[in-house]
Structure formats: structure tokens, C-alpha cells
Design brief:
Elements (H helix, E strand, L loop, with lengths): L5 H16 L3 H25 L3 H14 L4 H13 L3 H12 L6 H13 L3 H9 L8 H13 L3 H12 L6 H13 L3 H14 L4 H12 L13 H17 L3 H14 L5 H16 L1
Length: 286
């Protein structure tokens, strides 16, 4: 349950009392309207940032039903649907937003992102094509890079990723995506460098840590990188390295890494134990 925003209400209500004492009924009503506007604006902002995604969907569904012509509530509904893992529904609302007065290029970029999340790459590309090249933002270039990746336009993707990185102070996520792109096209060394750099901005992100181990394993560098990790994370990363080694034919190394994963894990590591048993069984048969 989101608490009511008492502070701005209390401050502004004090003003309405002062105005009423002066006999300004119209001014009193204007101040009260301001209170309501501030309250709703703050509530909407909270819902879009720290609110539970489904609670945000419920809130913006109600508000957009009550005030269907208010574009901010439609935007909030579209964003909250995407946050709640419902990108297809989010795209439908974004299309409605784009048909309303006041729709912006930022809205088009947001719709393209929703289309990417809905796996509608052609739709995302068409939406981005409707955004003038003069509109520049981190989100625009991040999505442009992902769409270029999907089309295997590597030089174009690299250019967009580089531009996106330069437009944010928190580039960990886009660096991870860029690294995964390089890994998928066979540039494991380039991917390793990007994953390492991403971890300097967000050292706690396990997905990036796992991607780093994959990039190193692709170069047959199976030892654990010197990065921040818990005991459980170390076990998971050893498991990743072990499977990668086995896949590349380095059976002895892979077996050792899988055994290390089992021994390192603070709890029973079922997947690693099962992989180790399967590997030993296959080796015995041969």
C-alpha cells in the first residue's frame, strides 16, 4: 500500500487557510486544485518507479478510465504494463498514446522498446524509422543498437551502442548487451572487455558475471576472473565454466570445474551433481 503524500498537501493546505481568511474564494479553490494535482503527480511518479508493477497497472488502469483524455495516465499504463511483463498489452496502449494530442518522439521510442520486449523486431524498426534523426536520447540509441543486432548489422550496432554508452552515467546494462552481441558474433575477447567494464559500474550483477565467464571460456580461459562474488555465485560460475569446457571438448578440465562447483556450493548443487554424474557415466561407457 502506497502511503498518502501528506507533506505537500499539508503545506499547501496552510496556504488555502490564509487565502480564505482574506476572502479569496477563487484563490482558495485554485490552491486546492493545485494540492490535488501535486498529489496525483507524485503518486503517478511513485507508481512508475518504486511501486509494485501490477499495483501500478491497477492504478493507471483506474486513472486512465476516469480521465481517458489525459495522456500522462495512458503513458503510465503503457509503461507499467511493460514493467509487469505484459509488453504486448503495453504496445497496444502505446499505440493509443501516439494517437493522442501531445504524443512525443520519446513516446515512439518507448513503444519501440515495448515492441522489442514483445519480440516484434520489425515493428520496432518501423517505429524507430518514424522518429526523426534529430531526436537523440540514450533510450533511442539503446533500442537502435538492439534492432541492428537483430539484423546482424554489426558495425551499425557498435556505433549505436557506443553512442548510448556516452549518453548515460549508468552504462552497465547497455555494456552487457553490447558484450553479449560481440560474444554472439564470435568476438569473445571484445565481449570480455565490455563485461569487465560493465562490472565496474554494477559489480553485483550476476548476469554480467556469468557472461564474463562465458566469454573467457570461449577463449579457453577457465580460471575464475578476479571479481566480487559470493560463495554461491562462485559455485554457479564454476558450473558455467565447466559446461563450457565440456562443450568445447576439454573434458578433463570440465569435470574438474564441475567437481569444484559441487564442492564450493554452500548447499546441495543438484544441476552440477547431475552434470558430473552424466559426464562420468558417458566416460565409463566409452
Amino acid at each position: 500500500m502506497i502511503p498518502k503524500l501528506f507533506v505537500p498537501v499539508a503545506v499547501l493546505t496552510g496556504c488555502t487557510i490564509a487565502l480564505a481568511g482574506c476572502g479569496g474564494q477563487d484563490k482558495t479553490q485554485a490552491a486546492m486544485d493545485t494540492v490535488a494535482a501535486v498529489d496525483q503527480s507524485n503518486m503517478a511518479e511513485i507508481m512508475l518507479t518504486v511501486g509494485d508493477p501490477q499495483e501500478a497497472v491497477n492504478y493507471f488502469t483506474r486513472m486512465s478510465t476516469e480521465k481517458p483524455d489525459k495522456i500522462d495516465y495512458q503513458r503510465g499504463l503503457a509503461k507499467s504494463l511493460v514493467r509487469a511483463g505484459k509488453p504486448v498489452q503495453g504496445v497496444a496502449i502505446w499505440k493509443k498514446v501516439l494517437s493522442m494530442p501531445g504524443a512525443s518522439d520519446a513516446d515512439r521510442v518507448s513503444m519501440a522498446e515495448a515492441q522489442v520486449r514483445a519480440n516484434d523486431w520489425k515493428g520496432a524498426q518501423a517505429t524507430l524509422a518514424s522518429v526523426p534523426p534529430t531526436y537523440e536520447s540514450f533510450d533511442r540509441y539503446k533500442i537502435e543498437a538492439m534492432v541492428a543486432d537483430s539484423n546482424k548489422q554489426w558495425s551499425r550496432a557498435d556505433s549505436y551502442y557506443e553512442t548510448a554508452v556516452g549518453l548515460t552515467t549508468q552504462p552497465a546494462g547497455v555494456m552487457n548487451n553490447w558484450g553479449f552481441s560481440k560474444l554472439s558474433r564470435g568476438d569473445a575477447a571484445g565481449a570480455e572487455q565490455l563485461f569487465r567494464e560493465a562490472l565496474t559500474y554494477d559489480p553485483s550483477n550476476f548476469t554480467t558475471k556469468n557472461n564474463l565467464v562465458l566469454a573467457r571460456a570461449a577463449q579457453r580461459k577457465y580460471e575464475m576472473p578476479v571479481i566480487e562474488m559470493s560463495q554461491q555465485e562462485r559455485a554457479q560460475l564454476l558450473y558455467t565454466a565447466g559446461l563450457s569446457a565440456v562443450k568445447q571438448g576439454d573434458i578433463t578440465t570440465g569435470r574438474g570445474l564441475l567437481q569444484d562447483a559441487v564442492d564450493t556450493s554452500p548447499t546441495y548443487f543438484e544441476e552440477a551433481s547431475r552434470a558430473l554424474q552424466a559426464l562420468d557415466s558417458t566416460t565409463v561407457k566409452h
